[in-house]
Automatic annotation (TrEMBL):
PROSITE patterns: RIESKE. Residues 17-112 form the Rieske domain. It comes from Dactylosporangium siamense. Residues 1-21 are annotated as: Disordered. This is Rieske domain-containing protein. SUPFAM superfamilies: ISP domain. The lineage of its organism: Bacteria, Bacillati, Actinomycetota, Actinomycetes, Micromonosporales. Keywords: 2Fe-2S, Iron, Iron-sulfur, Metal-binding.
Length: 133
């Protein structure tokens, strides 16, 4: 998608806005993996939608599988925690941040601004979003 999602949504240098899907598809206490390479996921953080790279920086494991409390996700493999707003690790063993991505909600739909280098499926919220269909 090359057009901006809606009025007041600004272009983000080096990124393209993509419609991820309906806001009501995002669960309350867990992440939802998007169909991108590399993998990204969206979270509902106290009513605010946030998007991060999905792979834990400690090892190769999905953060969408993690436990979410407030705006922190805990990786279920070795229990590192990440701030969903900044991507920063807040608890070991992870020491590197995960990338965060701008999000906008327009008319009940979620849009994410992903780096142009990311590969994106046409239906980002389609179940079984491993890789590209
Ligand atoms: S893979 Fe996430 S904490 Fe080890």
């Amino acid at each position: 998608m090359s057009a901006l999602p809606g009025p007041g949504i600004e272009p983000v240098k080096g990124r393209t806005w993509h419609r991820a899907g309906p806001l009501d598809r995002i669960p309350q206490d867990e992440g939802l993996v998007l169909g991108t390479v590399p993998r990204t996921s969206v979270f509902n953080c106290d009513g605010e939608v946030l998007c991060i790279d999905d792979t834990c920086t400690h090892e190769d494991y999905s953060l969408a599988e993690g436990w979410v409390e407030g705006c922190v996700v805990e990786c279920t493999l070795h229990l590192a925690k990440f701030n969903l707003k900044t991507g920063a690790p807040v608890s070991p063993p992870a020491t590197r941040a995960v990338a965060t991505h701008p999000v906008a909600t327009v008319g009940g739909d979620v849009y994410v601004a992903l780096p142009v280098s990311y590969l994106v499926k046409s239906d980002l919220m389609k179940e079984n979003s491993d890789g590209l269909a």
